[in-house]
Amino acid sequence: MIRRRTLLTTALAATAAIGLAACSEDGSDPEATGAASDAGGGEPALSGVTVGEDLGAEPTVEFSAPLAISGPDAQVIVPGDGAKIAEGDNLIWRSLYADAATGETLQSWWQGAPASGLRVDAEGVGQSALEALTTATVGSRVAMAGWQTSQSGDNYSLVQVADIDRVVDPLRAEGESGDPSGDFPAVTLDDKGAPALQDTPQGDPPTETVREELIVGTGERTREGDYLVMHYTGWSWADGKQFDSSWERDAPFSFVQGAGRVIPGWDQGLLDLPVGSQVMLVLPPAAAYGEKGENDEELNGQTLIFVIDVLDAAHRAD
């Protein structure tokens, strides 16, 4: 339900792996040639790529351009010394993207781009990446060759090099109990931590954004430019009905904080929070999907309630 908006003015969306399954944002094949298959013939794309192995520095990526990518390819460049990556893990990593056509670096965490991450599953990254990532460990440097679609709809053949920083864990808020005002419905949690409203909202909704801290985490505070990972559930103030939940999809949601990809209330209301916190945001239409008739969103004109667990916040390079 939460629609992502344009992320960056640079070439690529920084919140995912490149399209190793040859998928653009709408799930279509940007090459439109069936190139997601490994049966493209010839040598694997990364056989012609040399990647620097110094984990303390931005990776060097060398190849003769243009680099032909007839099928997705992925490999571990430097093994890490952390825990083994498992299917279904949610990773945080630091990435560099090189244009296979020119050799140019399009985007790099080491040069100020946001951090990024992904969920390790075939649907999101493709079978080649899944097989490589599930042989990797935390701390590894991995390389992938594939495709991505830019915000303007241009298709790129790419080499992505990423240093795996960590696995997001736990996948629920943990900390001390907050001190909510009591003016809004109480929240109950199931065994996994998924929230539910105890009562239907009563009275007129607030006209300004309200943030109530239900659990106060102990991690670093969120800031603009962070790659934020969270679980959330949303309800309509008007009738108390749930309209969306990442918990039901069993997959956290992620975005770059302050980049205008999500509703304004999330960009603004999730700043300066310790990781591990759980907050309730009560958002009037202007901070959610706009006033009635302003656009075509189903939730136009509605005040919304969200309960959000802040699971991780990866910073830009210092």
From TrEMBL:
Residues 25-51, 172-209 are annotated as: Disordered. One of its GO terms (molecular function) is peptidyl-prolyl cis-trans isomerase activity. Residues 1-21 form the signal peptide. Pfam families: FKBP_C. Keywords: Isomerase, Rotamase, Signal. PROSITE patterns: FKBP_PPIASE, PROKAR_LIPOPROTEIN, TAT. Gene3D superfamilies: 3.10.50.40. Residues 225-314 form the PPIase FKBP-type domain. SUPFAM superfamilies: FKBP-like. It catalyses: [protein]-peptidylproline (omega=180) = [protein]-peptidylproline (omega=0). Belongs to the FKBP-type PPIase family. This is Peptidyl-prolyl cis-trans isomerase.
